[in-house]
């Protein structure tokens, strides 16, 4: 017999909104008193200019060093940063946002052509059934795995519009360039050889794209768009729209991530916390619901290739600074397993 969670996940949240349905009990996740305490303040997340980290002739050594220190500080304190001058035009960012919105604006019958099963990850729908005690999220999403070698969508549906496919493939290529630039800059900020993080991820490092749609909610004070969790990936690249909703937990308080049209939010996952031996933190985050506003975002997860042994980088451990984490062979506690549990499960790799 299907559980209530499975029954609800077989429906689309967007369809429930269209039908005027109230959120059922498994969507109710917090006390009204929390929302009554007022809105969360904006997080002062540092903005990093990737152009200043490119070591070009137009950038002085002093400018580069200053920006590298700013980057290191951001990742030590917030576990994320807002990246600008990343090489992707604002016009193209608007285009990928529009393509995302257009997918979710299609008739329900059309979107259901791409539906996934309750226990599947790829496709259109909600997330797989969470572990017992975890609530459901007020959102729908489209999740796709991107081929690690030729940068094409490895598993796609032939019915999908050609424009969607082309824009996504173009965006994937640009994400590859961003991950190369960001990984090198992060390594340099730690005083390490610039390719060491890229080498740790491997040539077969995977990219997975998740298009998120958060419909309006009649009870935003008690229903969340996305449960509190930490990503189990290497790091995540998030493109937000103009509607605020993403929040980060800092010192037991929730802070709202500002929306910057031209910026990409780079957010560390647990595997980066392991690689940096706890120097950088993988932040717990969530998404709040809105009564009158829809929200979309696009998250690209960057993960080391399968069967890679993940552990603290050699340049960060010595007799004075011993490893805080064991090396984990075949680190396959995936982002989704972490997410289903809620909060974080980093203790699995601790010494």
From TrEMBL:
GO terms for molecular function: metal ion binding; oxidoreductase activity. The keyword Lyase does not apply. It holds the Pfam family DIOX_N. Residues 205-304 form the Fe2OG dioxygenase domain. InterPro entries: DIOX_N, IPNS-like_FE2OG_OXY, IPNS-like_sf, Oxoglu/Fe-dep_dioxygenase_dom, Plant_2OG-oxidoreductases. This is Calcium-binding EF-hand family protein isoform 1. Keywords: Iron, Metal-binding, Oxidoreductase. Belongs to the iron/ascorbate-dependent oxidoreductase family.
């Amino acid at each position: 017999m299907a559980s209530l969670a499975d029954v609800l996940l077989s429906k689309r949240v967007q369809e429930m909104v269209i039908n005027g349905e109230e959120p059922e009990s498994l969507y109710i996740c917090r006390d009204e008193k929390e929302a009554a305490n007022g809105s969360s303040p904006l997080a002062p997340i540092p903005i990093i200019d990737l152009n200043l980290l490119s070591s070009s002739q137009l950038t002085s050594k002093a400018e580069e060093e200053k920006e590298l220190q700013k980057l290191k500080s951001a990742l030590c304190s917030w576990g994320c940063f807002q990246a600008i001058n990343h090489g992707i035009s604002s016009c193209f960012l608007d285009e990928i946002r529009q393509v995302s919105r257009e997918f979710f604006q299609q008739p329900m019958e059309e979107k259901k052509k791409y539906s996934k099963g309750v226990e599947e990850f790829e496709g259109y729908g909600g997330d797989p059934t969470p572990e017992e005690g975890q609530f459901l999220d007020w959102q729908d999403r489209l999740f796709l795995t991107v081929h690690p070698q030729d940068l094409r969508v490895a598993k796609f549906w032939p019915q999908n519009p050609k424009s969607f496919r082309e824009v996504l493939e173009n965006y994937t290529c640009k994400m590859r360039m961003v991950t190369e630039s960001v990984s090198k800059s992060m390594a340099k900020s730690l005083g390490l050889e610039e390719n060491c993080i890229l080498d740790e991820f491997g040539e077969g490092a995977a990219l997975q794209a998740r298009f998120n749609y958060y419909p309006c909610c009649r009870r935003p004070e008690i229903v969340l768009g996305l449960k509190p969790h930490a990503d189990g990936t290497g790091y995540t690249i998030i493109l937000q729209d103009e509607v605020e909703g993403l929040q980060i937990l800092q010192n037991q308080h929730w802070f709202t991530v500002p929306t910057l049209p031209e910026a990409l939010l780079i957010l560390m996952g647990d595997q980066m916390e392991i690689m940096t031996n706890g120097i950088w933190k993988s932040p717990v985050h969530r998404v709040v619901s809105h009564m009158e506003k829809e929200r979309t975002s696009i998250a690209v997860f960057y993960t080391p290739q399968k069967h890679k042994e993940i552990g603290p980088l050699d340049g960060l451990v010595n007799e004075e600074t011993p490893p805080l984490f064991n090396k984990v062979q075949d680190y396959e506690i995936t982002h989704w397993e972490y997410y289903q549990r809620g909060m974080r499960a980093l203790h699995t790799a601790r010494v």
